[in-house]
Amino acid sequence: MKCENCTKKECSKKQKNDDTQSTSVDALSSSDGFEEKNEFPTLANAKILLSDCLACDSCMTSEEGARVFQQNQKELFRILNLNKECDTSKHKVLAVSICPQSLPYFAAKFSLSVNDAAKRLCGFLKSLGVHYVFDTTIAADFSLLESQREFVQRYQRRNQEEHALPMFASACPGWIRYAERVLTNLVTSHICTAKSPQQIMGSLVKGYFARQQNLSPDKIFHVIVAPCYDKKLEALREDFYTALYNSQEVDCVLTSGEIVQIMEQKNVSLKDVTEVSVDTLFDDMKERDVVRHDGKRSDGYLEHIFKYAAKELFGMEVKEITYKALKNKDFQEVTLEKDGETVLRFAAAYGFRNIQNMVLKMKKGKFLYHFVEVLACPGGCLNGKGQAQTEDGKPDKALLNQMEEVYAAIPVRLPETNVHVQKMYQDWLEGMDSKKVQETLHTTYSAVSQTASSLDIKW
Questions:
Q1: Are 258 and 73 in contact (CB under 8 A)?
Q2: Which of 23, 27, 238, 451 has the most CB atoms around its CB within 10 Å?
Q3: Contacts (Cβ under 8 Å, ≥6 apart) of 209
Q4: 3-class SS string, 82-136
Q5: pTM
């Protein structure tokens, strides 16, 4: 029984019966003698089913494994309890940023509108002691803008640089982990260098917001609420760590399901929580209605980059995009025709089966695409395994259908129209082509050798 993304001839898992439940790994307890202080007397150690982790090719070192398993609800409450102590030098400003693909889960699960769900989730988190609650859509704005500009630049260099095209999206940490640990530089050199929305949000909170509040970055404890477990691995990347402040851009990632577990332990329904407006990074300004980007189940990298490239490279305005499903609904193609010639060929590849087929074609020299939006989860980000799962670990299809309806109904806002983003480019990032933009909004990806210290996972 192999993992969906397994490339090994011999399975490293211990054999198990198909009808038994996946064995889970208990999270390591937090250090420093932390105790729950009866906040959650029945809260069990967080458990991550390794079948839930899409980067499971024995690629975690023991240190990474320990740190991943510490990213759970107890870590949040360790900070909350720390803030209650008399020694204010140990206090942290607690900020929580919520991914837009998590909100439809809360809305569908509690039969709320997405705007009500956002405000009630904010109210719940603040009732626990969280100081600020943000929406990561602004970070996705930056990521989309940087990705589409990079694609056009790569396209223009395609005849001079071997690895300019195709370009692969960089927003999915499961895909990135797989590419770096398994697929070598054949693929990693083609990955877009723009950071994911999660990590750009980390830069915004620990950089821009910290400066606005006159805070040192290490005085902020930043939590992301996300739909999948791979975001926990992404937060631990060395390139997202600032040695000067001994601070990660994102300190802890909790899945949507882990937040619901906290509600259940508190015996709270989101429907009964008082609404509180979501914060913004800008002084006392609050978020208005929830908005999203183009794209049915993700942040819409394919659609935004396709439309931008069509206009910038060929002077063509594309209003609507027509997807052509190929082998399955999770591998779709989009093309742009001009004067009888196909000038752009994009694809969306969701799930590791489609990713592996894509890579196989690339190795055989039969890869025709200029850009691919790659997501590790079949069905896209809404189907992240940190939410909308049944008790036996399978997707809750009825709930997912509701979530897709909720997400599709959210109004679309183009990243170019966000005046705050444009202002931050000029005032904080020193212009769109500045060195600071490269340092703050971009990173690099490269093949990582497997080490002898890989975590010995008991299956």
A1: yes
A2: 27
A3: 95, 132, 220, 281
A4: HCCCCCHHHCCEEEEEECCCCHHHHHHHCCCCHHHHHHHHHHHHHHHCCCEEEEC
A5: 0.87
Measured from the Cβ of residue 164, the count of other Cβ atoms closer than 10 Å reads 18
CA–CA distances in Å: residue 30 to residues 44, 70, 75, 216: 13, 6, 7, 24
Tokens 């209605």, located at residue? 289
Residues 126-147 have pLDDT tens digits of 999 999 999 999 999 999 999 9
* Cα 210 off chain centre by: 22
Report d(CA 283, CA 397) in Å as an integer. 40
Could you tell me the CA-to-CA distances from 411 to 186, 296, 307, 361, 405 in Å, in that order? 38, 12, 18, 37, 12
- Dist. CA 240–CA 243, nearest whole Å: 10
pLDDT tens column, 244-264: 678 899 999 999 999 999 999
The pair of three-digit structure tokens given for residue 329, joined into one six-digit string: 């609904």
First vs last C-alpha separation in the chain? 12
Distance CA 281, CA 135 (A): 10
Q: Which of 357, 384, 383, 377 has the alpha carbon at shortest distance from 369?
A: 357
